[in-house]
Amino acid sequence: MNQPKIIAISQEDRRLHGCPYCSDAGYQVLSGNSIDSALFCQGCEQTYVVVKDGAEDSVAYFRGRKIKIQPHPNKPKPRKKRATKPRKV
Ligand SMILES: [Zn+2]
To answer: Helix, strand or coil for residue 47?
Structure first.
């Protein structure tokens, strides 16, 4: 099966960075439920999925397909946080 890949991002990432493909802020809601919404970007005309705040750790569904939620592509990769241990003197 060769279906186009759908990107799922968090609502917060969409607010901050816009469309995951082109960063456009304009969209139309195609469908939605209490956890995720399928949005149609008015900039690049691609569809992506936005997951409500607080549900970022769950899995989004789009037309029956499971989509893993990913960080927004424009977002700088989170630096690996190391537990800040006090340095031994
Ligand atoms: Zn777009």
So the answer is: strand
- pTM summary value: 0.76
Whether 16 maps to a domain, the answer reads: yes
For residue 54, being part of any structural domain is answered with: yes
Q: How far, in Å, is the centroid of ligand 1 from the Cα of 86?
A: 44
For residue 81, report the distance from its CA to the centre of ligand 1, in Å: 31
Residue 79 lies in a domain: no
Q: What is the pLDDT of residues 16-35, one digit of tens each?
A: 999 999 999 999 999 988 88
